[in-house]
């Protein structure tokens, strides 16, 4: 395919008045030569003005505006950005849910049990902190394929460590409260105390860190897709679009600018949301 010269190269051949000039006929019929297209269009040129109007040919397509341009295959970039947003947000939200379930359960159990159980569980967390997680994710994706489910699990499995530490700290401060002693006195089981009493009372920090985890996961997915290890065609994501834009950056810079801009704005918005929730749920700030 010839290099892209301008963002309108794949746009409809008709002008704003709905008239197609003969010089543009080669783009209307991409599979034939310009002279063959001219011969075909000559059959409909009733007034001989070397142009086709809507009255002469009812099938003439209306002008199409590609507000953000097109990619290297002529696909509307705005449409692909909207479609890619579903994948990027889905990966961020679902992988965050995976990390939330693992981290909250692990941290709450370690904090409530204490003693040797706490020491063993948190040493495992410390060991996993020292591992190069992105390399592990790349290995997982390389071995098991770039299936979207594998991507959810792989990204979720590396984000739960900090959540576990946050929840453990909250549970340690809560487990000596009177409501926990009351639950023990009436014979409530340990799992019930953890999941029905302690975790609900630690929801503030959990919600805040969850909102900050979503943009982190989205950024990691974009990094993997940029390397060609994330979302694969026919699906797309903002990271995959940025990877495509990198290959045609000199001739079509708007592709990588649009995808990178959408990702940057979304990440900033989610981080601002997390900061706002942290300020709103912080008891010290509420007292002030």
UniProtKB/TrEMBL annotation:
Pfam families: BPD_transp_1
UniProt keyword Lipid biosynthesis present: no
InterPro entries: BP-dependent_transpt_permease, MetI-like, MetI-like_sf
Subcellular compartments: Cell inner membrane; Cell membrane
GO terms (BP aspect): transmembrane transport
UniProt entry tagged with the keyword GTP-binding: no
Record's bilayer topology term: Multi-pass membrane protein
First and last residue of the signal peptide: none
TM region(s), chain numbering: 87-113, 133-158, 198-217, 254-273
GO CC terms: plasma membrane
Domain (ABC transmembrane type-1) ranges: 85-274
Entry keyword set: Cell inner membrane, Cell membrane, Membrane, Transmembrane, Transmembrane helix, Transport
Similarity remark: Belongs to the binding-protein-dependent transport system permease family.
PANTHER family in alphabetical order: OLIGOPEPTIDE TRANSPORT SYSTEM PERMEASE PROTEIN APPC, OLIGOPEPTIDE TRANSPORT SYSTEM PERMEASE PROTEIN OPPC
Protein name: ABC transporter permease
Provenance organism: Persicimonas caeni
Taxonomic lineage: Bacteria, Deltaproteobacteria, Bradymonadales, Bradymonadaceae, Persicimonas
